Amino acid sequence: MPLVQVEGAMCSKFWLPFALLLLTPFPTVASPQSAHGKPTTGAGTDATAIAKFTRDVYAYASLHDIVAASMPSEKMYVDPEQRQRHINRLAEALRTERTGARIGDIFTPAIASLFKRRLAHAIRRSALRGETLEPEQIPQGEARLDVNDAFPWIAQPVMPPAVFAALTPLPPGLEYRFVYRDLVLVDVGANLVVDILENALPVTPTRQEVIEPRLTPSGACDVHPDLPMCWS
After folding, report:
1. Percent of the chain's residues with pLDDT above 70
2. Is residue 10 part of a domain?
3. Phi and psi dihedrals of 197, rounded to 5?
4. CA–CA gap between residue 211 and residue 213 (Å, rounded)
5. What is the domain extent for residue 85?
6. Is residue 60 assigned to a domain?
């Protein structure tokens, strides 16, 4: 029986406020407004991209928890081989749930653009501090990782904390990893590639190339390129 009838009898005093509450849309992330009431194109777009990315990674984390809850706990396995078989079964179950997953489902164009800008500025600041970053190019003939692949825990260049600080925090169980210049979103518990942002890291400039433009600064962003206002 509907709570509110469009035609016919009037609603009771009890049901009308409850019905109106149910019909009220849930709040969403609002874009910043300009002085004329129109959404801004910079900060508003970035905030929307971050909000969607956050929803997507938490949705995946919830999926992981649901699938993992349907299986015996990993803590039951003491033997390393048994534990690895459990991880493989969990990964296979998640692949089944995400058969249609593709690169860019979570790293959408909007968040990809924002992350690339932030990473470029973080690396430039790291170079100014003398920290060397040498992300390698993918060797010719070597296949790139794909979504739902097992993540290869191979040695990668150590990234300064400022580089990871430029990225949006993740829920427990998910981590960022760099493979060559690509940013990979990894489900650690399932050893699974969730999504990939290809060419996330720019080609690393030399320290001299970074320092020379700073000798004649023309604005605040030349001196402090890490400021959010300079990320667009």
Report:
1. 59
2. no
3. -110, 100
4. 6
5. 43-230
6. yes
CB-CB contact of 195 with 106 (8 Å):
yes
How many CB atoms neighbour CB 63 within 10 A?
Answer: 15
Q: Is residue 25 part of a domain?
A: no
User: What is the residue whose two structure tokens read 């001196």?
Assistant: 223
For residue 125, give every residue at least 6 positions away whose Cβ sits within 8 Å of its Cβ, in sequence order, or none: 162, 225, 226
Give the DSSP H or E segment for 57: helix 43-69
Nearest-10 crossing angle of helices 43-69, 80-97: 120
**Residue 110 lies inside a defined structural domain of this protein:** yes
- CA of residue 65 relative to chain centroid, distance: 18
Domains: count for the chain: 1
Per-position pLDDT tens, the chain of length 232? 444 333 333 444 433 333 443 344 433 444 444 444 444 456 688 999 999 999 999 999 999 999 999 988 766 667 788 888 999 999 999 999 999 999 999 999 999 999 999 998 888 887 655 555 555 666 666 778 999 999 988 756 667 788 889 999 999 999 999 888 899 999 999 999 999 999 998 875 544 444 444 434 445 554 455 555 555 4
